[in-house]
Design brief:
Elements (H helix, E strand, L loop, with lengths): L1 H19 L4 H14 L8 H26 L4 H22 L4 H21 L8 H4 L2 E6 L5 E6 L1 H18 L4 H10 L5 H25 L8 H21 L3 H23 L1
Antiparallel strand pairs: 1-2
GO cellular component, one term: plasma membrane
Membrane topology: Multi-pass membrane protein
Organism: Lysinibacillus telephonicus
Length: 273
Amino acid sequence: MEFFLLVIIALCAGVIGSVVGLGGGVILVPATLFIGNNLGYIPNITPQSVVGLSVIMMIFIGLSSTLSYMKSKTVDYKSGLIFFIGSIPGTMVGAWINKGLDLPSFNLYFGIWLIILSFILLVRDKLKPISWFVDNGIKREFIEPDGTKQIYGYPIWFAILLTFVVGLTSGLFGIGGGSLLVPAMLLLFQFPPHVAVATSMFMVFLTSLANSASHIYLGNVPWIYTLPVIIGAYIGAKIGAALNKKMKSETLVIALRIILLLLGIRSILDGLF
């Protein structure tokens, strides 16, 4: 039964993560902890093992999404590699912090983080883009299908600092980091939306490789559960990438921020009581 539930959870995580560029861990981690600890389908699941499982899943969500976005030529590889440089040490620090958390502490901090992410998703469309980062950094351009040229950019030092924080949260909580990176790419660096999501998923793929190496070294990956998660995530990411090309993601973002808020409150309550 637990394998079937993990396939369904990973499928949903793949779809949602790929459409909005989050990576999917924000769905897998709380859902797996719930079926493991509250429903008893995965005995002795720990914060460390569920984060290890999530980072393995995100490799395949990132890979599947990136392959799909490559066909539409919306991945900014140069920016993705620059962002990756900052995220590597961040994932290592996050994984090291994670090993010292018990379940109540993890639930409390993870719940607080989910509520912060929900707030970021709530306000990101109400904030105005800031041109300073584009004006004072390297500039990139993207040609829309209709021939319109979009200029965006960022200071490399700030991008590396930002992605260190993204990597740290990824290593600590097993989430993709796109929840921070995508709004920053849109508001600060003025990326075109589809380029932001596609490049975020490319960075999720690269970061997850480094992140998984840390968690494998620490013995955090429950290998018996990886196969159903990989299958569900890979298929879900393909579906999500296809939906991203055909739909506005705002409806899904509205639903996601409500879900994150509810999951965050529940996780905090589990951590406190």
